[in-house]
Write a structure and sequence with these properties.
The chain starts with a strand and ends with a helix. Helix 9 packs antiparallel against helix 10. It is built from eleven helices and 16 strands. It has two domains: 118 residues, Uridine Diphospho-n-acetylenolpyruvylglucosamine Reductase, domain 3 (2-Layer Sandwich); 107 residues, 2-Layer Sandwich (Enolase-like, domain 1). The mean pLDDT is 93. The chain is of the alpha+beta class. 43% of the residues are buried. The chain has a five-stranded antiparallel β-sheet. The chain has a four-stranded antiparallel β-sheet with strand order 11-12-15-16, with helices on both faces. A three-stranded parallel β-sheet has the order 1-3-2, covered by helices on one side. The chain binds flavin-adenine dinucleotide. Flavin-adenine dinucleotide (FAD) binds next to strand 2, helix 2, helix 6, helix 7 and strand 10. Flavin-adenine dinucleotide binds next to strand 2, helix 2, helix 6, helix 7 and strand 10.
Amino acid sequence: MTLSWSPKTLAEAREALIQGATKVAGSTDLLVVDHATGSVRDSVLNVLGIEELQGIRVEADQLSIGASSTFTRIRESAEVAKHAPLLKDAARTIGAAQIQNRATIGGNIANASPAGDSLPALLALGALIVVSGPRERRIVPYNAFHTAYRKTVLGPDELIERILIPLPAPAVQVFRKVGTREAQAISKVVVAFASDRLDHRILANVRLAMGSVAAVPVRLHEVEILIEDNPLTPELAARAAALVAKSITPIDDVRSTAEYRRHVAGQVVRRLLLDLLAAPPA
Ligand SMILES: Cc1cc2nc3c(=O)[nH]c(=O)nc-3n(C[C@H](O)[C@H](O)[C@H](O)COP(=O)(O)OP(=O)(O)OC[C@H]3O[C@@H](n4cnc5c(N)ncnc54)[C@H](O)[C@@H]3O)c2cc1C
């Protein structure tokens, strides 16, 4: 028999966290795994009712997104559209409407798949993760959250409470996903690009993050420096594409080959830069 908790507050969730109950949100990942492995959980903590994990709001100098926000709520949020269009675009590509109605951003992060679509967006936006345990709350920069393939800094007695995106957000934000189809496709390559501004063909403070090209979502620092240090031209876009292909460590798997991923990741960045050159954001 499975012991089940459905608390309304973090304080009420304390006992379940101490006992290391499995956290369950939309269950779009967990159900698939449990069905495939036939596992039955001893105890589960349904996090969807916990009020501290709810809501999307601007607080002082940050956009604060509750971990239990579904991708439908993220898509529909005016605050996300205004400050984090990159994340809105990522949400739009996750599964189809049925999945977006159930799947949460906290689940996407904790599931820690290198193909998780919101993850490169959070890296490019410089997100911080509010992690809560039975005794303390800590804030982890998102770039330190994933430690290895499907591993995170999250302890068994901790949960993701909120995601904080520092404001003002980057003026230039672009999301690209390459999958087998337009919708309902796990990514072959995900690219999230952010820059504080594009002024006289110079992109300032570039953040280029990718998913499905390494064991964890990654920032491509060398490519970022190349782009920042040079005026935006077709030649720069081609050099950036070549450096992307050298910088990533994709694998062959059921969805794609490493060779295809290297090629397409570079071409996505090249086209993204050419698009910015042709139509700079206002
Ligand atoms: C048909 C289908 C299509 C999909 N398409 C995509 C896609 O295109 N892109 C994509 O990125 N993903 C996709 N997914 C995967 C999945 O929908 C996402 O990863 C989703 O965001 C998981 O969220 P959830 O709320 O359902 O998590 P759950 O399944 O409830 O949990 C997933 C993991 O996160 C943990 N967890 C949940 N909430 C918390 C929390 N607050 N704190 C700590 N741990 C927590 C759970 O313990 C579990 O380990 C797809 C899944 C399906 C079934």
